[in-house]
Amino acid sequence: MEVLAWLCAMGGLLLGGVSAFVPGFPGSAVALLGLVAFAGLTDFTIVTSEALILATLIALAGALGQVAAPVVSSRAAGGTAGVATGAALGAALGALIPLPGMSWGGALLGATLFGILGSREGVLKTVRGLIGTAGGCAVAVLADLVSVLGIAAVLAVADFAAQGP
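The structure assignment produced for this chain is given below.
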């Protein structure tokens, strides 16, 4: 049973890491599912419920980073408020559509539409905001990958602690 548990954990981490590169797909959630399967198959003796809570918080931070990164980087690049608002609304609406890439596509589409409709500050700021939004999508991949690595770290520390002195 322990071999199956490790296969679930490693499979979840591997699939989570790979799916982090799929735009708008929460790879950290896949990694978390592998860890939950591991914990259940080992009767929570290695990964405790407290460790699962920590891993869940890490996965939530990764998911939040995926949605927030395009918005924050749009403003950091000097984009207009309309571009940032459009990126936020587009990413949130895109996240509701269960297809990979819809969150990022929604962020870019929303940033474009709101940037064009509300471009009182000029085209240059709108373009900077769109470039920032696109860069934020790349940052979102890193946020998800870091959260997958954080979940792997929770498993590693829990396994080390369970081994005892």
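Interim note for the steering committee: Residues 71 and 84 are 5 Å apart (CA to CA). The chain has a mean pLDDT of 85.
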